[in-house]
Amino acid sequence: MLARKADPRKGHRIVAAIALATTLSTSCAIESWSSMPEGQDAEAFPMEAHSLLPPENGERVSVGIDKQAVDSQPIAFDHSIHAGSVDSGGMAMDCQYCHSSARRSIHAGVPALEVCMNCHKMVDDSDRPELQKIKEYWAKGESPPWIKVHDLPDFVHFSHAPHVRGGVECQECHGAMETRTVAERDEDMTMLMGWCLDCNENHPSVDENYSAEAPLRRVELKDCYNCHR
Ligand code: HEC
Ligand code: HEC
Ligand code: HEC
Ligand code: HEC
Hints:
The structure is a single chain. This protein is mostly helical. Among the domains are: 79-188, no CATH class; 192-229, no CATH class. Helix content is 40%, strand content 0%. It has twelve helices and no strands. One heme C binds at residues 4, 13, 16, 20, 24, 75-78, 81-82, 91, 93, 98, 111, 115-116, 118-120, 123, 130-131, 134.
């Protein structure tokens, strides 16, 4: 049973992470992780993503830097605790443990509450309202209404799958999410058309994956239809 001790949180989390890692290797976490069969239609909207709402103020946030959504999430989820390195007090969870659609779908998605509950049913939440909320949503059978931080305009087609499978790291587009307490857009990652074109033109994974055909592939990547369809 995991109980929160006041100090030192760092040590506690490492112990928790080890205990949880052991539990997870046998729990249904793994089942829900692979619940979408590999061959499933890549265009299908994954279940896990269904609760992502558009940004609260209704404005698209692909242009410029808009930090509105960050402190208005239904549960104060902290990436640094879950995905941060063990040295910095985190549990070093793999991004795709939670964003499990990224490899096979347009959407990276947010995890089903079940994934959180695999651990949180065992984490002591006395006097911890943010943790209690997880169990409240679970009891109601509802998903937390997470608010989208990144939101490209609808006329842009972007799919995670070819990028993630092609070897592009999450951090190349989202920055060091594993160090953040709140999910927000990275100031250097504009997600504007020129930024996408530059990367498609220069990313070494295209050479690695297509070798002699890389120049042809790069032409294909520049085609308007690639991103506007
Ligand atoms: C090539 C750049 C790129 C890479 C690599 C990338 N993403 Fe994304 N990600 C985006 C863009 C662009 C959006 C916004 C998509 C939209 O609004 O249609 C996004 C949106 C998201 C979202 C919001 C939900 C969704 O599915 O739209 C999550 C979560 C996410 N990414 C996580 C990840 C994770 C985890 C990885 C690594 C496994 C990753 N991303 C790799 C560019 C990228
Ligand atoms: C691998 C196990 C694991 C998973 C999966 C997991 N958590 Fe956690 N989470 C923990 C542990 C351990 C802590 C630290 C508890 C503590 O400080 O006592 C924690 C802490 C938290 C906190 C408290 C943060 C703070 O500032 O104190 C929140 C909120 C939270 N998790 C939400 C979530 C949500 C939402 C999900 C699902 C998207 C999730 N967690 C998935 C293990 C997990
Ligand atoms: C324990 C589960 C968990 C892990 C592990 C995790 N995330 Fe997340 N992630 C979430 C949840 C829940 C949200 C939605 C709440 C929020 O925005 O903070 C989210 C939101 C995001 C977003 C913003 C999506 C949007 O709305 O546009 C990005 C980008 C993202 N994660 C990337 C990553 C990357 C990269 C990693 C690995 C370094 C990672 N995540 C690891 C649970 C997780
Ligand atoms: C690699 C992906 C990619 C390719 C290829 C691409 N675009 Fe775009 N384009 C984008 C993205 C991303 C945006 C959205 C930027 C934003 O948020 O305003 C965009 C936006 C636009 C806009 C709207 C600009 C605005 O100011 O709102 C037009 C028009 C456009 N593209 C035309 C084209 C044409 C014509 C081509 C082919 C010559 C092309 N695009 C090729 C990614 C691409």
